[in-house]
Design brief:
22 residues, rod-shaped, 91% helix, mainly alpha
Length: 22
Amino acid sequence: VPALVLDCEPNIDFNKDIEAKE
């Protein structure tokens, strides 16, 4: 389970970066 949490957090940051660039 912790692995999934760690895997999701970077994805959230990545999505925020995409939105910020747009």
